[in-house]
């Protein structure tokens, strides 16, 4: 046999050995450090320690206390737990819920969560949406549009008592939620700030809770188009939700002036004292939706930076975070939004800003742009002028003059 032939045989033998070695490596089903999840993973160590030794740190980690955590686990555990197989055991439902809540609370990457809980990143990506959808289905009743006139009147009374704004059934606003570059559809999500986003349009009641959310409009859509195409607008105009007569929303310049939607007088005009007072009173009332978004961002740090999951996961992330916000605001307001956390008015020192404004860095949230709408109806203009007259006469509050100068 020639030297060349022998060399070929030697190379072939070495290649065969390498192939067999790689096959043996692939037979490793789980990495060794992940196999030690039950002994060294956070679920059976750190999380248990925090429950026993310091519940405040547990709540800071997951944004819920121990009782609330196990309430959710009891409600969704059976729907997110899968059977063990001969090849490997399924991730416990408790661990899945811990990972999902920590992801919303901190915005940690899948890599960080994987190392902390000793669960593969690909596995987290697989079950995350399922767990979030299960949470939303349990808490869905905490984020629904009122359907009776009495429910609306309760909100209207709340706005009048707290914000001195009559016949107001909600404050509306929209935010661009920045997302990662979506391949293949980038032009649809490219917005006016040269980032990629979807839009969250929300209506908030007098107590900082979302009564309506519309998630998923593409960032390139005009702001007027987003409102015009939302289901809330149709429901208001067709009155399928039993609104009391003459009830109004309050919004900023981004929204069209409608008989049921009040916005400020345009600031580009030379405003009279009366119009400035109207703008102050409307913005004072509308500040509640700013605070709701601010608390949401501060409590769920997933919104502090652009969300890097795929677009289809962003929708359920936003919906579940809003549902958790409402649930916590209604069931444990003192701990979720303690005194001083939200903007407060002090007649001596004026507006005292809540700390969420300094804690929230913007990140995934961007304001929607103003809409140049010159087609307001005479009826809408008349209603706004009536509010202006009311705020400057019978409905005046003692501090409003000092607030505009």
Characterise this structure:
By secondary structure, this protein is an alpha/beta fold. The chain contains 19 helices and eight strands. It has helices at residues 3-26, 32-35, 37-40, 46-53, 55-62, 66-80, 93-106, 110-117, 121-139, 149-163, 186-189, 223-228, 231-238, 273-299, 311-331, 333-336, 356-359, 378-391, 400-403; strands spanning 168-178, 197-204, 210-218, 248-250, 261-262, 344-346, 350-352, 365-367. Strands 1, 2, 3, 4, 5 and 8 form a six-stranded mixed sheet that branches. A two-stranded antiparallel sheet has the order 6-7. Helix 4 (46-53) crosses helix 5 (55-62), helix 6 (66-80) crosses helix 7 (93-106) and helix 9 (121-139) crosses helix 15. The longest helix is centred in the last third of the chain and has 27 residues, at 273-299. The N and C termini lie far apart (102 Å).
């Amino acid at each position: 046999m020639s030297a060349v032939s022998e060399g070929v045989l030697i190379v072939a033998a070495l290649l065969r050995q390498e192939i067999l070695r790689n096959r043996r490596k692939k037979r490793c089903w789980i990495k060794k450090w992940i196999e030690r999840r039950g002994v060294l993973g956070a679920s059976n160590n750190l999380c248990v320690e925090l429950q026993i030794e310091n519940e405040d740190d547990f709540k800071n980690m997951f944004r819920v206390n121990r009782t609330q955590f196990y309430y959710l686990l009891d409600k969704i555990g059976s729907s997110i737990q899968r059977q063990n197989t001969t090849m490997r055991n399924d991730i416990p439902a408790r661990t899945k819920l811990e990972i999902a809540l920590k992801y919303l609370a901190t915005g940690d990457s899948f890599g960080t969560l994987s190392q902390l809980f000793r669960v593969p990143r690909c596995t987290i990506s697989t079950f995350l949406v399922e767990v979030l959808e299960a949470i939303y289905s349990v808490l869905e009743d905490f984020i629904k549009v009122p359907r009776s006139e009495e429910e609306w009147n309760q909100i209207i009374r709340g706005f009048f008592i707290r914000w001195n704004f009559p016949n107001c059934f909600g404050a509306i606003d929209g935010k661009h939620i920045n997302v990662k570059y979506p391949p293949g559809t980038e032009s649809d999500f490219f917005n006016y700030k040269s980032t990629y986003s979807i839009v969250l349009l929300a209506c908030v009641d007098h107590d900082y809770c979302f009564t309506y959310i519309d998630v998923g409009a593409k960032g390139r859509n005009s702001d007027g188009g987003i409102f015009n195409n939302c289901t809330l607008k149709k429901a208001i105009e067709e009155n399928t939700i039993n609104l009391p007569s003459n009830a109004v929303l309050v919004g900023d310049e981004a929204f069209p002036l409608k008989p049921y939607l009040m916005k400020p007088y345009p600031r580009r005009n030379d405003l009279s004292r009366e119009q400035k007072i109207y703008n102050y009173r409307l913005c004072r009332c509308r500040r509640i939706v700013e605070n709701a978004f601010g608390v949401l961002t501060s409590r769920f740090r997933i919104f502090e930076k652009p969300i890097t999951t795929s677009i289809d996961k962003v929708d359920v992330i936003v919906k579940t975070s809003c549902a958790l916000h409402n649930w916590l605001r209604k069931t444990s307001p003192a701990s979720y939004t303690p005194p001083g956390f939200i903007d407060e008015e002090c007649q001596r020192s004026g507006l005292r800003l809540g700390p969420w404004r300094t804690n929230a860095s913007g990140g995934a949230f961007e304001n929607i742009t103003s809409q140049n709408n010159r087609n307001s109806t005479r009826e809408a203009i008349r209603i706004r002028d009536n509010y202006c007259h009311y705020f400057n006469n019978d409905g005046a509050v003692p501090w409003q003059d000092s607030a505009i100068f």
